[in-house]
Amino acid sequence: MADKNNTHKKPKFNIFWMYALIAIFLLTMFWMNQDGPSAVETNWTKFESIVQQGRVQNITIYRAKNKAEALLKDTLSAQEITAIAGKQETSFGMAAPVTANRIASQIPSADKFEDSVKAWRADGTFTGEVEYVEGSNDFSMILYTFGPILLLVALWFFLLRRMGGAGGGGGIFNVGKSKARLFDKDNANKVTFRDVAGLAEAKVEIAEIVDFLKNPKHYTQLGGKIPKGALLVGPPGTGKTLLAKAVAGEADVPFFSMSGSDFVEMFVGVGASRVRDLFQQAKEKAPCIVFIDEIDAVGRARGNKANLGGNDERENTLNQLLTEMDGFGSNSGVIILAATNRADILDKALLRAGRFDRQIYVELPELSDRKEIFQVHLRNVKIDGSVDLDLLSRQTPGFSGADIANVCNEAALIAARHKKQAVQRQDFMDAIDRIVGGLEKRSKVITEEERHSIAVHEAGHATVSWHLKYADPLIKVTIVPRGKALGAAWYLPEERQIEPKEALLDKICSLMAGRVAEDMFLGIIDTGALNDLERATKIAYAMVTYYGMSDKMPNISYYDTSGDAYGITKPYSEDRAQTIDEEVQEIINSQYQRARQILTQYEAGHHELADLLQQREVIYTEDAERIFGPRQWKSRTEEIISDEDNRQPQPGNTTVTPPPFDPQNDNQN
Fold it and tell me: Over the stretch 256-305, which tens digit does the pLDDT of each residue have?
């Protein structure tokens, strides 16, 4: 049976066979289409005899080869060719032409040949011209003949390689091959769970996959089936890709990495072909892990938009992916991991049991997670004793792992820019301000009237937020332009899991305080409150339409978590829309009046704070506490910071560490 299989085994096609056939064809055409028959090679004696017979029309001398070629007045017959040179063959072994009108012979030297020419002219046997050529014309003839052909062949090779690059290399015939990169288990750059800080819950969920790849028999003998696919869902920069690599490193198995956009190509059917090739490679390397990053590029829900009668390549690729994931055996050892930050737009068939039947949420890191992430990224950073990881972790709420890595790198660059020997605490603070708030623009031209208006505006925010229970603790206020903002306030937001209604109202009140201060103390309003009004309006609309916190529309939410859009029509009537607008306006107006009452009560403190801000351009928590007294309500974060300050006393107000630029800050733009 083995001999029979070998007998019928066909050789694999190689593209270079085609190149060889084309080259042979071109050379054959060249030699078969020469201008007339080739010259007959003979010796000098017979050459001289033919010249003396008066049969030569002209002679060409090739100095480089010491060769003479004569053009005859008549044509040599076959018998004469045989007598002169015997059987003549070309370089390909084909018989020479039966007739010829040129003869060639080696000459002793060009100088001695001149004497022979003079003798022939003297006796009248040769009256033609003698042409001297320094080199052989063979190269020029080949260059002129094959030059354009070679250029076309070179261009063809170039185009094939460029087209082959789109298909994973190897030419246009491999355009349907998978572009997945293989990280073998012996890879030197192996990533393990030690390199992934935080994500404790995600690690626990995904540890079962690692254990299955290490000990598959422990599950199969009990009849258990490991999930075929796991989907990592979370905001950008939280470490989804790094976690997938760590799974492969911990399991010590091959790891195929591919982006969702790599499946999509301009050629019809290429995406589906790449999916098939990817799973074929994975089965050969099993047990292994296949990781598809940004799977939403190919896994979007089908049927949302019409194809207009055309062939949707993305949908074909998705269909093939669904088929492959449901096609291989449950215990084949191939596990699919995918990552996305838009799980709501994925096709439901992709998320069903048997495919991606497990979703692992990779959220933004908590306080303890941020500390671990700082420890990982500071391994190769030279820091001094002033750097406090606990304080850095508390001052970076809402930062992802990528943001923290950027903070560490930016702090090192700032320290190097100032010629320091180590990265200090202040460098990290400046890095946080630089990344989130933007670069300071002290050279920006601002009139004194504008500076006073900005100071009054920012002091209004600081005054009102200081006297609200749920307002974020104020840490720093500045009127120095930074990024697109003319002024900014730094807060240390409480990391709450849920927000009570009073907290949202306090947030709206503190946002409206800047506009209220302008109206009360300047008598005018300007465009500086644009960012405040935008955010306050969004919060008010969310309270009414999403959270059911309206008095006239209690316990009603129009928020859609399924990902299915309502379409071009609203899920409520025009009368209900008018009611929503009235409720939002009522919330804004009530908090506007509330902010006015607080500023009226603490008007003297506001003026003192505004004057100090205009004078120093930057104020800190200690300044507000000196003017208004200790804050009545302290958050858990403030209590931790107070304990930290007691352990590590600060030199003074000018060296107080600024907190991160909170996304819910106040921007004058």
Answer: 888 777 776 655 567 777 888 888 888 887 778 888 888 888 888 776 55
CB atoms within 10 A of CB 212: 22
Q: What's the DSSP call for residue 437? A: I
Q: Can you tell me the mean pLDDT for 71-77? A: 81
Please, are residues 583 and 550 in contact by the beta-carbon 8 Å criterion? Answer: yes
pLDDT digits (tens, 9 = 90+) for 503-560: 999 999 999 999 999 999 999 888 888 889 999 999 999 999 999 998 888 998 888 7
Lowest-confidence segment of 96-100, 230-234, 635-639, 657-661 by average pLDDT? 657-661
Cα→Cα distances 70→62, 105, 137, 439, Å: 11, 9, 15, 85
Q: Cβ distance 173 to 277 under 8 Å?
A: no
pLDDT value for 646 = 42
CB 157 within 8 A of CB 211: no
What are the angstrom distances between the C-alpha of 366 and each of 80, 342, 343, 412, 437? 102, 21, 22, 24, 22
Mean pLDDT of 420-436: 85
What whole-number distance in Å separates Cα of residue 199 and Cα of residue 271? 33
In order of 456, 519, 551, 608, the CA distances from 524 in angstroms are 12, 5, 33, 20
The two tokens of residue 209 are 């996959």
Cα separation, 530 vs 137, whole angstroms: 82
Q: What type of residue sits at position 155?
A: L
Strands, sheet with 334-340, edge to edge from the N-terminal-most edge strand: 181-183, 255-259, 288-293, 334-340, 229-233, 356-361
| 3-class secondary-structure state, position 474 | strand
d(Cα 219, Cα 330) in Å, to the nearest integer? 12
Q: Please state which of the ranges 232-236, 332-336, 423-427 shows the lowest mean pLDDT.
A: 332-336
Give CA–CA dist 334/430, Å, rounded. Answer: 47
Count CB neighbours of 159 within 10 A.
11
Are 74 and 55 in contact by the 8 Å Cβ rule? The answer is: yes
Q: Helix or strand or coil: residue 229?
A: strand
Helix 401-417 and helix 425-432, axial crossing angle in degrees, nearest 10: 120
Coil, strand or helix: which one is 1? coil
458 counts as catalytic: yes
For residue 423, the cross-strand partners are 383
For the segment 169-227, what is each residue's pLDDT rounded down to a tens digit?
444 445 445 555 565 555 556 777 777 777 777 777 777 777 777 777 777 787 777 77
Average pLDDT, the chain: 75
Handedness of CA 167, 168, 173, 177 (dihedral sign): negative
Backbone angles phi, psi at 186, to 5 degrees: -95, 15
- Enumerate helices (H) and strands (E) in the chain, giving the number of each: 23, 15
**Catalytic site residue from 313, 324, 458, 583:** 458
Cis-peptide, bond into residue 287, ω within 30° of zero = yes
Q: Give the integer Cα–Cα distance in Å for 186 and 315.
A: 36
Contact 645, 659 (CB under 8 A): no
Closest CA to 532 of 554, 549, 502, 509: 509
Beta strands 130-133 and 56-62 are parallel
Angle at 25 between CA 23 and CA 27, to 5 degrees: 70
- What whole-number distance in Å separates Cα of residue 435 and Cα of residue 377? 17
Structure tokens at 146: 């094959």
The residue count of the chain comes to: 669
